[in-house]
Amino acid sequence: MQLSVAIKGEGMDSPTVVCRSNFKEPESYGSLLELSWRGSKPLTLGVGHTRTFLRDGDEVIIAGHCQGDGYRVGFGACEGKVLPARGS
């Protein structure tokens, strides 16, 4: 299985791929929590943009597929935007 995750922070022109995971390689992380070492190391998204956790207004794009001998099954880009909590 292949998975890629991209984040477009507020004010950024285009999304930045933060991880590509095949779930086989030890250094093939699949979440922002793993990439930022539980929020202790900021992840660079672009010029002047870093994240340890997602923020309100961030857009997240996830795409993935599974491939084998003679087949490939997957899904297109799944996109969403982080909204503020109700009552905030």
Task: For this entry, give a set of tags.
88 residues, 4-stranded antiparallel sheet, 1 helix, 5% helix, globular
Provide an overview of this structure.
The chain is mainly beta. It has one domain. The protein is built from 1 helix and 6 strands. It has one helix at residues 32-35, and strands at 2-8, 16-21, 43-46, 49-51, 59-68, 71-81. The strands form 2 sheets. It has a 4-stranded antiparallel β-sheet with strand order 2-1-5-6, with no helix packed on it. The chain has a two-stranded antiparallel sheet with strand order 3-4. A hairpin with a 2-residue loop joins strand 5 and strand 6 (71-81). The mean pLDDT is 81.
Give the structure's gist in a few sentences:
By secondary structure, this protein is mostly beta strands.
